[in-house]
Amino acid sequence: MLDLNEIEILQVALAHEKQAKTFYERLARRQGDTPAGDLFAFLADEEERHIRKLSAKHGVPAFEADWQEKYLPYLIDLDRLAWEEGVDAGGAEGPDAHRKGLAVARKAEAHAIAFYHQAAEVVEDGNVRNLLSDLESEERIHLEKIEAFLKDL
Question: What pTM did the predictor assign?
Fold first, then answer.
């Protein structure tokens, strides 16, 4: 069970989306003009769209998504995952670069799906619940794209 109120859930969602956007932008720059680079650029744009949805539609300013100790258990550390995968915090070298970056992206999207699903179950406001469910669905689409790309590698 999440120990957060609705505004805090939205703040965690904003923090996650901002972190994912930054991570995907780094991977897009690192991969350059390649199919993987295009996928990471697409994912970064999608995260930016999620940030705008969360901050505009529900009045949670983006600046409120600052890292706070209370929220850390609900966030995923993409740089740590990248280090564990050998991606060197956003960009690997060599033939495994695409696969490793996509493996981190897959974990990030799976984490977001789980968070949005759990959060939608505990919020009372129907609009917030619908937004979280919509974001969960969009993250599932991202995960499908990542998995399809990995399958083709």
Answer: 0.79
Name the packing angle between helices 126-152 and 6-31 (round to 10°).
20
Here the tokens at position 57 are 């539609």
- 36-45 pLDDT tens trace: 899 999 999 9
DSSP 82-131: HHHHT-TTT---STTHHHHHHHHHHHHHHHHHHHHHHHHHH---HHHHHH
The C-alpha atoms of residue 36 and residue 98 are separated, in whole angstroms, by: 6
Integer Cα distance of 82 and 8 in angstroms: 26
pLDDT of residue 89: 46
**pLDDT tens-digit readout, 112-139:** 999 999 999 999 999 999 999 999 999 9
Contact 145, 40 (CB under 8 A): no
Please state, in angstroms and as integers, the Cα–Cα distance from residue 115 to each residue in 1, 33, 135, following that order: 10, 32, 10
Domains of the chain: 6-152 (1.20.1260.10)
